[in-house]
Request: fold
Amino acid sequence: MSFSKRARQLTALILHPSCILSRYDTPWDNVLYSTTRNLFSTNRISYTLIDELSSRMGINRLADAIVAENLYDSSRSAGSVSPYELTVISRICRLLLPKVILEIGTFEGRTTLNMAINSPGAEIFTVCLPPDKCSFQIGRFFAESPERARIHQILGDSRTLDYSRIPSPDLIFIDGDHSYEGVLGDTRNAFRILSQKGAILWHDFDPCHLGSVTAALGEIEKNGFSYSAIDGSTLAIAYRVGQAGS
Reply:
């Protein structure tokens, strides 16, 4: 493992208060651990309950309760969001009332469909690699759905995509390439095209996907956004206080 990758991993472990570093794999880890511990405080990541999110974001209204039929197919495929995370994403959609949603990482389209159902009238643009590079059926959950007319499937590499053909999104959900470089590229693009009242969601914001943590944190802070990890999930959200969804 490269020095830089090891440094990123240890940094993420230190940043995440729920993760315990139980052992050092190499002598270099002792040096890296001591260095990164001094650079970052353990309370750098703030956590919030989903019910507290509206007040943190400066939104006066409350999201409506999600009715059962809107949580379309809460069964979970390997690698997809959990049923609770699906509920959280659906509630955020109802809270923000986005007109345009961009999803990076379609997978089977379960999250895509639920975002569409819980964002009436919104246009959803969802990005995935071409079928010949995927081992799953892209977008199978929304393929025959009435919401299909509002869901626009884009095939290609999210890091090199021409985003000028997509209206500025009010909500961006990043759950694609989980490498450090992939998350960093997607996050930078997200901040570049996000609407003035928009918010960004990341999935797998946890020590098991260390690139997501370290790549996203630096870009969030550089762009001057507030952010929270959502308690009980591996979701994180970045937003402008008092502007998102207003």
Notes: The helical segments are 3-15, 27-39, 53-56, 83-96, 110-117, 180-193, 210-222.
